[in-house]
From TrEMBL, chain A:
Keywords: Cell membrane, Membrane, Sugar transport, Transmembrane, Transmembrane helix, Transport
Residues annotated as domain ABC transmembrane type-1: 74-266
Protein name: Multiple sugar transport system permease protein
InterPro entries from the UniProt entry: BP-dep_ABC_trans_perm, MetI-like, MetI-like_sf
GO biological process, one term: transmembrane transport
Intracellular or extracellular location(s): Cell membrane
Source organism (scientific name): Thermocatellispora tengchongensis
Upper taxonomic lineage: Bacteria, Bacillati, Actinomycetota, Actinomycetes, Streptosporangiales
Automatic annotation (TrEMBL), chain B:
Subcellular location(s) per record: Cell membrane
Family the entry assigns: Belongs to the binding-protein-dependent transport system permease family.
Keyword annotations: Cell membrane, Membrane, Sugar transport, Transmembrane, Transmembrane helix, Transport
Pfam families: BPD_transp_1
Membrane topology, from the record: Multi-pass membrane protein
Claim: Transport is one of the keywords in the record: yes
Gene3D superfamilies associated with the record: MetI-like
Organism, scientific name: Thermocatellispora tengchongensis
InterPro entries: MetI-like, MetI-like_sf, UgpAE/MalFG_permease
UniProt protein name: Multiple sugar transport system permease protein
One GO cellular component term: plasma membrane
Sequence intervals crossing the membrane: 16-40, 82-103, 115-132, 152-176, 223-240, 272-294
GO biological process, one term: transmembrane transport
Length: 281, 305
């Protein structure tokens, strides 16, 4: 057998094996998460090896949302995430437009600043912010947390939007300017409507960061249970032994599901937006 | 330039600064100023109880640094951090590359497989870590029901595997890192593979190059740049990562990375100065590694050209 034939034969086996193994290790844990969340804890203890629940029950969900307070945590997470998205977009849209279109003093240095913020370790910033929030009595308050998230997401958001704004034809904007639009008017009436997919993608990206974040939530909110986010709530309750694993698994599903939905919705939306633009030429 | 043009140009400059200023203000207030303050705190004897008395000026000392550097466990935690980072980075990129190559050709169900690959990266870290904890639990974890003898993956610092001593918990944490971040490399590499010109590979195919030869001599050379970028990004992010290790092991069983020490100094011991010093040491070590890497890499780049 020639080397070429041999290699092809090996790869013909190796490729599906790689796909199958990776698919198993990525999909199975999350399927297992769902399956654990719909059974009674006794079943898990008596028969830890079983995959499918013998008797379906939604009791873990009722328990985690009601008694354990996950409804409150979800409300907190939603408030924090939505506020972060709104504020980040509000701040980064003009910023991105400026970097994409306008010549101003220090335009080149701005990129360096953003890269530095993006790469800078959060653990170093956590210390002074923790001290500051303690001194100001802001620990336990959601607006303080939102402020930190805005600063963490604005650089990437500006970067993402800038790339898109640069692809908006200059001529359309110039036409608006000739028709008497000011800079803000041009952004509002021309650039933004043309950039809807990019705005959506950036907003969803910001939402994911704010919903998933753990370190700052832990540092700022841990003493006030009524302000916990879902991430923080799950991590705190998982540390104890009182709450059954199946109930906590229901909590994990509640934490994970919105973000997975948001991600796959945005992925489709993004490709749809791009192909729609291509059809029009 | 006429006067009118100059005025327009000046207007543009003013509008630019005005539009970028909210971005700059928030980065300044929440990132730059706190960073400077962190540096000052590292040189002061600051604790949460006496923080109001610690002024901006005066009482600067190197004590925090001598303290954290001399503390037992610091150097070993630095080594742990390095092992964790290098292994996690290398594995996540290698698996990401394998995944991107395997999914290159179209097949039925590719969209579903692709979606599954991305979930570990998209899912919240708290949920992913908890899921691993449950699955690896020695009493009721499903993975341990498949094994002959249960292994305490996350709380056992060493064990023997085929007669060799291995750091069990550290390897588990590294595996988690590879599992969680290979989608990141997968996404980047898939995008790059997608944009490769087809004619190069076709030419190699016509010249009789075997699949591995095509990979080695045609595809890989075009991927080096993106792999180098991924290495830097993953190294930087993993080196200072806190969430994953803290949630999985709390820094126990031989997995104590430096960022977990920073957190412990800050919260359980309330020693702000030492915590800031520890964090700065971590950041400086990271910068040293980056500089060495960039030197080495740009040197290699020049040689190739």
């Amino acid at each position: 057998m020639s080397r070429d034939r041999f290699e092809r034969a090996v790869l013909a086996v190796l490729r599906p094996v790689t796909i199958a193994v990776l698919f198993a290790v990525t999909a199975f844990p999350f399927l297992y998460m769902v399956m654990l969340s719909v059974r009674d804890i006794q079943e898990l203890i008596l028969d830890p090896g079983s995959l499918l629940p013998r008797r379906l029950t939604l009791a873990p969900y009722a328990d985690v949302l009601g008694r354990q307070g996950f409804l409150t945590f979800m409300r907190n997470s939603a408030i924090v995430a939505v506020a972060t998205v709104a504020a980040t977009l509000l701040i980064s849209i003009p910023g991105a437009y400026a970097v994409a279109r306008l010549r101003f003093f220090g335009r080149r240095q701005v990129h360096f600043l953003f890269l530095a913020v993006y790469l800078f370790p959060a653990i170093v910033l956590a210390i002074p912010l923790f001290v500051l929030f303690t001194m100001l009595g802001l620990r336990g308050s959601l607006p303080g947390l939102v402020l930190v998230y805005i600063a963490q997401t604005v650089p990437v958001s500006v970067y993402m939007l800038r790339n898109y704004f640069e692809s908006v034809p200059r001529g359309v904007e110039e036409a608006a300017a000739i028709d008497g639009c000011g800079t803000l008017g041009t952004i509002w009436r021309v650039t933004l409507p043309l950039s809807a997919p990019a705005l959506m993608a950036t907003g969803l990206y910001t939402f994911m960061i704010a919903w998933n974040e753990f370190l700052f939530a832990l540092l700022f909110l841990v003493e006030r249970r009524e302000s916990w986010t879902v991430s923080l709530g799950l991590s705190q309750l998982a540390g104890g032994i009182e709450i059954p694993t199946t109930v906590l698994m229901a909590g994990s599903v509640v934490l994970t599901l919105p973000i997975v939905l948001v991600f796959f919705a945005s992925e489709r939306l993004l490709t749809e937006g791009l192909t729609a633009g291509a059809e029009k030429g | 330039m006429t006067t009118r043009e100059r005025t327009l140009r000046r207007q543009e400059g003013r509008a630019g600064l005005l539009l970028i200023s909210p971005t700059l203000v928030i980065t300044l207030v929440v990132v730059v100023v706190p960073l400077l303050w962190a540096i000052m705190l590292a040189f002061q004897d600051a604790r949460l109880i006496n923080i109001r008395q610690t002024g901006l000026l005066g009482n600067y000392t190197l004590e925090n640094f001598t303290y954290v550097l001399a503390e037992p466990g610091f150097w070993s935690s630095l080594v742990t951090t390095l092992v964790y980072t290098v292994a996690g980075t290398a594995l996540s990129i290698a698996i990401g590359l394998a995944a991107a190559l395997a999914l290159r050709r179209r097949f039925a169900g590719r969209t579903l497989v692709r979606a599954a690959f991305l979930i570990p990266y998209v899912a919240p870290v708290v949920a992913a870590a908890f899921l691993w904890e449950v699955m690896l639990n020695p009493q009721y974890g499903i993975v341990n029901t498949w094994l002959g003898e249960p292994i305490a993956f996350l709380s056992q610092s060493t064990g023997t595997f085929l007669g060799v001593q291995v750091p069990v918990a550290l390897l588990t944490v590294i595996a988690f890192e590879a599992w969680r971040y290979f989608p990141f490399a997968f996404l980047f590499l898939t995008a790059r593979l997608h944009s490769l010109p087809a004619d190069l590979e076709e030419a190699a195919l016509i010249d009789g190059a075997t699949p591995t030869q095509r990979f080695r001599h045609v595809i890989l050379p075009q991927l080096w740049r993106i792999i180098a970028l991924l290495s830097v990004l993953r190294f930087v992010f993993t080196f200072t990562k806190f969430d994953d290790v803290y949630l999985l092991t709390g820094g126990g069983a031989g997995t104590e990375v430096v960022s977990v020490r920073v957190y412990d100094l800050l919260t359980s011991r309330n020693d702000i100065g030492a915590s800031a010093a520890q964090a700065l040491v971590l950041a400086v070590v990271l910068m040293v590694f980056l500089v060495i890497y960039l030197r080495f890499f740009s040197g290699a780049e020049e040689e190739r050209e």
